[in-house]
Design goal:
130 residues, alpha+beta, endopeptidase fold (from Nostoc punctiforme), two-stranded antiparallel sheet, 2 helices, 7 strands
């Protein structure tokens, strides 16, 4: 039960079983969401892509970003395409999730500076697979 106390609202537990079930369910949902995000942040970008960016898991070989060059078929930069950067010391994979403007596309990827990010990135020199 939410009770106003001056200018602040405070949560006052009630004895009702329904309130307890609702609070337990909300807490469970919150914990699952937080643990899923924490788990995803610890993944390699390829592993994140396997579990979150494609419809079926292509296998552990694709934990490594450069192996995504062999997945699916070649395509151009477009929404829905996987984008693979594999040159020099830069190995990364993500999915184009929004419009491209020239070589700049909206890309979602894991382990992007240690986080899951959706941001505009240059796709110049990248390989595209769908």
């Amino acid at each position: 039960m939410l009770v106003a106390c001056g200018t602040r609202e405070i949560f006052r537990p009630t004895q009702g079983k329904e309130d307890m079930k609702a609070r337990t369910l909300l807490l469970t949902i919150a914990l699952v969401a937080l643990s899923s995000q924490a788990y995803a942040r610890g993944m390699l970008c390829g592993e994140f892509a396997r579990h979150n960016l494609v419809s079926s898991d292509p296998g552990s070989k694709y934990n490594l970003a450069c192996n995504w060059r062999d997945w699916g078929r070649a395509t151009s930069a477009q929404v829905g395409a996987m984008v693979i950067w594999c040159s020099g010391h830069h190995h990364h994979v993500g999915k184009i999730v929004g419009p491209c403007n020239g070589n700049m596309c909206l890309v979602r990827s894991g382990n992007d500076d240690g986080a899951i990010r959706t941001r505009v990135r240059s796709v110049a020199g990248a390989v595209f697979r769908i």
